[in-house]
Amino acid sequence: MLNSQEIISTIEMVKNEHLDVRAVTLGINLFDCVSHDLNVFKKNIRSKIVKNASNLVSICNAVGEKYGIAVVNKRISISPIALVGAPFSAPQMVEIAHTLNDIAREVNIDFLGGFSALVEKGIAAGDRALIEALPEALAQTQRLCASVNVATTRSGINMDAVLAMARAIKKAAELSKSDDGLACAKLCVFANIPQDMPFMAGAYLGVGEADAVINVGVSGPGVVKKAVERAIEQSPEIDLGKIAEIIKNTACKVTRVGELIGREVAENLNIKFGVVDLSLAPTPTVGDSIGEIFQTLGLTSIGVPGSTAALAMLNDAVKKGGAFASSHVGGLSGAFIPVSEDLNIAEAAANGYLSIEKLEAMTCVCSVGLDMVPVPGDISEETLAGIIADEMAIGMINNKTTATRIIPVPGKKAGDKVSFGGLLGEATIMNVPHATNKDCFVTRGGRIPAPIHSLKN
Amino acid sequence: MDKIIITVLGKDRPGIIASVSKSLYKMDCNLQNVNQMILQNQFAGFFVVEHPSHLTLDAILKQLEVELVGQSLKIHADILDTQVNSSKNGSNNANSNIKAVNKSSVKGNDKSEEEIFFITTIGPDQKGLVARFTEIIASYNVNVVNLTAIFKGGDEPTANIMSYQVAITPDTDQAGLFRSIRQKEAELGLDISIQHKNIFETINKI
Are B3 and B32 in contact (CB under 8 A)? Predict the structure, then answer.
């Protein structure tokens, strides 16, 4: 029997602490859609996606209503287009991007991810066409998300791909100049990309996945913050071990909610359930922030000394809680620190507490990387490639996922404001030291070899 | 063998269940179920008992009254009716004006098809709240399987809460019921949540 305190605390989590299911992402395998004929391919992918996803939104809404928990975003991830569309040229890839954008509109989802390539060891013809198509594809569409994996722990870092991505990002920014480089907000560069991640912009359906699968992304920074706040209120001298325990228990509860919703959506769609990804993903709303958790823990702001340790504790406790709650935890499962998407982190950057160097250090211990970081528009391709390479090295050496989602804002400089709208938020452009340097390290190309600990067989 | 149900009411204090069960033991009665609840400081205990065939209901009741004399307890005993009530003669609500709906009276109301939803209201105490909500619920032929209501006044959320567990069947006009309930939110200044039971179980029962 539930007591009234349990009922109230559950209602509080949903109503006042922003517990929600951040994304139900339907993964759709497109390998059976391949064709050498572009029109046939486009027809096949439309037919398969619409067939699987036509009821996605209505079912998610009904399940959300049943449990009183909002399913905020309904999304689709697909097989990497560079693989299933390998025969096509860059202009044809742009056409495919438009088709995917239209399909996303047709099935009423806000983002479709999987305009992707896996090039950690080498770039094939389809990969090259996709990377070449990225700037136009992203600038000309609204609902399409792209990701390119340029490094893994097992393969090393493909520096040719890193440079190609830096160029693609610069060009995408230029082509979406009127929207402050918005196209780049839909493009992630990855090391060790997960195959089952439900969160955008990096979601795609891996090649080892089923024909269709439901993956769920649950958030809840507000719930964690409130739980820590309550514990400190009750015992002001509480130590960090006990706080980590509270975060772990809270993460466990939140993950269970995600699995409950995900399994019910999957059952209703008659599709297999995949994983729950419990990632503390903030929004630009007060009370739904990762940065605020740092302040609750006793730091002046995210970015001050102590922040990396706090983030390490937070990320680890979230993973442990999630792993206890569900046998099918996947994706990223940790804490995100996207600059513009988190009001508190954006303020920390604007007020000088958080520099890009500190942000990079923190990505060593969190679940993603340099996320939604606006940088000056005149940043050189070489510097951008250097930032990406550094982030990829962290992922490769530490056997973890890292990513960059960097937005060079055309015509703007460090300290200027930029607003991307909606969940993408707004921020002050971060200072990048020596941004216009043209260091030739990144233009040497080739592949940085995989680290010694990749030799496991 | 008939079973009897004994209800014991009185001001709560240590030893009530002990006294009652000891008396029943002395009469060679076999306790099958015991449940109790305490509202503020008032104790209510329910004892389902198998009794020896030579003892009548009256005899058991009289013996209990003798044994428990001086303890300011009200004792009631009756034959346990295991038949499910029809809607004509049963009432599951405190308000006698409210139509009671029992499982047998609802077409297709197989317990396995029921889904339990929690309707929770948080907000200031007002006269007639329980009556208003139960009337709406009953008008949709929906059974309240559990109700907890606490009204202590003040602004503390936990001090003013009603939580109805209602059994929704495939025949229930679920959307209509929930809409009618939600319409009361603004009118009564309450914060109303309607959620399937599983969300509470999932979060709290690990």
Answer: yes
Nearest CA in chain A to B115: A66
Q: Do A66 and B195 touch (CB under 8 A)?
A: yes
Q: Total domain count for chain A?
A: 1
The CATH number of whichever domain residue B110 belongs to comes to 3.30.70.260
Please check whether residues B107 and B30 belong to one and the same domain.
Answer: no
Amino acid at B10: G
For chain B, what is the domain count? Answer: 2
Condensed to tens digits (0 to 9), the pLDDT of residues A222-234 reads: 889 999 999 999 9
| ipTM of the complex as predicted | 0.74
Q: Which of A10, A69, A218, A324 to mutate to test the interface with B (most CBs of B within 10 A)?
A: A10
B91 in a domain, yes or no?
no
Say whether residue A253 is in contact with chain B using an 8 A CB cutoff.
yes
Handedness of CA A112, A142, A32, A53 (dihedral sign): positive
Tens-place pLDDT, residues A8-61: 888 888 877 778 888 999 999 999 999 999 999 999 999 999 999 999 999 999
- Is position A56 within any domain? no
Residue B149 DSSP one-character state: E
CA gyration radius, chain A: 21
| Least Cα separation, residue B163 to chain A (angstroms) | 8
End residue of a domain, out of B64, B79, B94:
B79
Q: Which domain holds residue A308?
A: 222-252+283-445
Same domain, B50 and B124: no
In a domain, B140, yes or no: yes
Place of tokens 């702001």: A301
pTM above 0.80, yes or no: yes
CA of B93, closest CA in chain A: separation in Å?
Answer: 20
- Residue to substitute from A67, A259, A260, A264, interface B, most B β-carbons within 10 A: A67
Report residue A43 as tokens: 């027809």
Chain B nearest-CA distance from A442, in A, is 49
| Backbone torsions φ then ψ of A35, nearest 5 degrees | -160, 155
Select the residue of B150, B202, B206 nearest A260 (Cβ to Cβ).
B202
Same domain, B134 and B67: no
Residues in chain B: 206
Domain with B140, as residue range(s), is 103-204
Q: Is A210 on the interface with B (CB under 8 A)?
A: no
Listed residues B44, B79, B114: the one ending a domain: B79
What are the angstrom distances between the C-alpha of A61 and each of A107, A279, A451, B133? 14, 21, 46, 26
A433 belongs to a structural domain? yes
Phi (first) and psi of residue A304, to 5 degrees = -75, 165
| A351-378 per-position pLDDT tens digit | 999 999 999 999 999 888 999 999 999 9
Query: Hey, is the C-beta of A14 within 8 angstroms of any chain B C-beta?
Result: yes
User: Beta B160-168 vs B143-151: how paired, if at all?
Assistant: antiparallel
> For residue range A50-109, what is the model confidence (pLDDT) as tens digits?
999 999 999 999 999 999 988 989 999 999 999 999 999 999 999 999 999 999 999 999
Residue of A1, A3, A4, A226 to mutate for B, most B C-beta atoms under 10 A: A4
Residues B11 and B69 in one domain: yes
